[in-house]
Structures are given as structure tokens and as C-alpha cells.
Amino acid sequence: MYTIQDLANLVDGSVVGNPQTLIRGASEIQSGKPDTITFLANPKYKTYLTDTKASAVIVNDSGLLAGKTGIVVNNPQLAFAIIMEKFSRKIDWFEGIHPTAVIHETSKIDENISIGAFCVIEKNAKIGEGSKIGAHSIIGESSVIGKNSTLHAHVTMYHHCECGDNAIIHSGSVIGSDGYGFVQSGETHVKIPQNGKVIIENDVEMGSNCTIDRGTIGDTRIGSGTKLDNQVHIAHNVKIGRGCLITGHVGIAGSATIGDFCIFAGQCGVAPHVTIGDRAIFAAKSGVTKSLPGGKVYAGMPAREIRETNRRDAIYSQTKQLKKRLELIEAHLNLAGSNDT
User: Fold this and answer.
1) Assigned CATH for 97-304
2) Is 273 a catalytic residue?
């Protein structure tokens, strides 16, 4: 339990109303509960502000509070995220190595770690200080996990892969599976050995059921601070820069290079061997078929600058309307012609 003043101090905010108001949790503004704190960032939710039962609201303008207790900050959503951490349920991780875990004698396990039930840590693997490995996870031969990283249950990391510090990898994700590489010989598809590895840099978060393929010769790399949603596929030899946001069902094909701080909305697809510049943004279901410069917003299939896509969509709609009008004119002319006879 915290006072509003405690929470304001945490986020460098200013209190409006009673600074001693007690807060026991967080809630949504549209379903706010007494003794909780909520926030207003999206103007669409402003209508809920008057009637919310939350005891305090985080806003960016004190005038929005209209007599309510709250905290004023520049970025309410960021402040709410920081405050929510205080009320988050903590996972009770197993301390040390569970007796059912299988740990190869050549592996190196640092201090203050958690290795859950039925984990397998293979030959020459390394796990850094403070890291946590959930139940039934597998860390392959000579793979490395840095400090304070968390792999939830049922994560599989194949051999000779690397994961940096402070990473979070959710259940079901597979790191280092073979890339989709074949060469045709007559009517036979001959497998190309996938001898590279996957390198995940620091502060990466990966959702559930992601698949990151190992490189063919070079390595597949995910840059520091990049965040992957659930069910993302990164193919062999892909290079993803720092701080990218990649949402659900995105697929990035082999040897694509993604710059820093790019954003991919749901179900985007990226063709192989293309290069995307820094800070490019792709709307949902965009299809990237060629290299594109950064600093722009794209949409459509194939992906074009969003203004061009919107213009083409508008022309298509206008063309459909013109077609209907022409059909009506033709029908009228045909009817008039039949009446003349």
C-alpha cells in the first residue's frame, strides 16, 4: 500500500488533491475500483474520467482532474507502467537448481540462479548470475545466457546460441532452430547445413511461441532493447537493430536487415535480402518486397509510403463508383433505345 505522494515521488509527478490518499492497486479507467490508481493518456477514454471509481488518476493536465485526486506528469502511460510494477504479482521462482533438473557436469552455472523442474542444461552451456530458467526448458550445448535474464517454462535454446543480459523469453519460444535452407537437385531438395547461431543482445523481450532461426553461415542477430510479440518468426541470417517493436504474426525472411527503432504492426511480412532503414514504421499486413529507406511510414502490399497507399486506395474506390455510374448510364441508354423502336 502506498500514498499518492509516494507514487508521485516515484514518477517525478505533482500531486493534485489529498497526498495521503492510500492506493492498494491499479485498475482500468473504464472499470476503476476504489483504492486503486488509473491513468488517462488516450483522449478516447476521457469520457470515463468523470465516473471512474478509481481513487486517483494520472494525467498530463491538472485541469482534467476536475476535483479528483491525481498525479500530473508529462507521460501518464509511462508513469502508470512504473507504478504498476509496485503492484505486480511476483513469480515465486525456485531458488537454486531443482533436483529433477539435468545439468551436464561441464556446464557453468553462476550464483543466485533459478533452474526449474525437469530443465536440461547441456554440455558447456553457461548461465549468468541472477538468471532464471523455467520448468522443462532446454539450454543446448555451448549456449550462453547472460546475467539477470528470464526464460519462462518450455523455452528451447538450441546449441551454440547466445542470449545477453536482462532478457525475457516467454514460454514456447524456440531459439536456434534450423533456417529454411534447401537447394534443388533434380526433383530432390537437398538440405543446406545451418551452421551459424542466434545472438540475442541485452534487454530483449520475446513473447510466447516465437521462432528464431539460426544462421546458415553467419549469425541471426536481434539488437539490444528490441521487443517481439507472440508468434513472431525471424528467419536465418536476419539482422534486427536496436529498439525495434515487432508485433504478433510478423514474419521476416532470410538475410533481411532491419535498422534501429523500426516498428512492425501485426501480420507484416518482409521478403528475403531486403534492407530497411532506421525508424521505419509499417502498418498492419504490410508486405515489404524491396529495400526501403528509414524515417517513413509504410502500408499496403507491396508496402509503399502510406500517403501513396491511401491515394491508390482512394482512386480504386472512386473507380468502383464510376463503374457503377457508367452501368447506370448504359442501362438508361439501352432502355431509351428500346423505347425509340
Assistant:
1) 2.160.10.10
2) no
